[in-house]
Amino acid sequence: MSATSSVQATPVAVWDPVVRVGHWALVAAFAIAYLSAEEEGGTPHALHVWGGYVVGAIVVLRVLWGIVGPKYARFSDFLCGPVAAVRYLKDLVAGHARRYLGHSPAGGAMVIALLVCLAGTVATGVVAYGERGKGPLAAEGAVVTTVAQAGGNETAGGGEVEGAKGGKSIIGEVHGALANITLALVVLHLLGVGLASYAHRENLVAAMLTGKKHAAE
N or C: which end of the chain has fewer CB within 10 A? Predict the structure, then answer.
């Protein structure tokens, strides 16, 4: 083996434990929250609620880590404009995209998009849960604005569930839409990881498990 190929084959630490554990914990928490979203008797399943809280906590931690964490975890390492992200995707499809040790421009854009959507999903979920008189935003006698299921007339009511039993919360509808957008982004993320793994001849899923990638060429 030549000296050059030996250097290229040497694994280097890229993803620190906070990034790796946070990544897989976020995957598990979002999956649990999404799959347990079916309501029983007008009240969200406890798994859905606690899954959402865990997602929110991980998002906050990831944002803080993106500011004070090591090089490849920081936003400053991979934040770029949409033009660079689109250019990378075009080069990736064409088979001659530059390889990055950290996040690629498209990967960095996906990180930001996922964090924004996850934060929005959690925030609207907490508000919608508060409309039912539960959670940290619950307030006795709070006004709940809903859209009636049958007639589409706007109604308002107070109390824990009285205003929400007969219709769907507008915030709740936004919450559901954001959750579905997040799921769509996850699917795109998986496709991108698969394509980049093939193009760069590197298992990016394994890299997020071990934290190591091959040295830059």
Answer: N
Type of residue at 200 = H
Q: Give, for all 217 residues of the chain, the pLDDT tens digit.
A: 444 344 456 889 999 999 999 999 999 999 999 999 877 666 788 999 999 999 999 999 999 999 999 999 999 999 998 999 999 999 999 989 999 999 999 999 999 999 999 999 999 999 999 888 888 888 654 544 444 444 444 433 333 344 444 456 899 999 999 999 999 999 999 999 999 999 999 999 999 999 999 886 5
Which architecture does CATH list for 3-138+170-214?
A: Up-down Bundle (1.20)
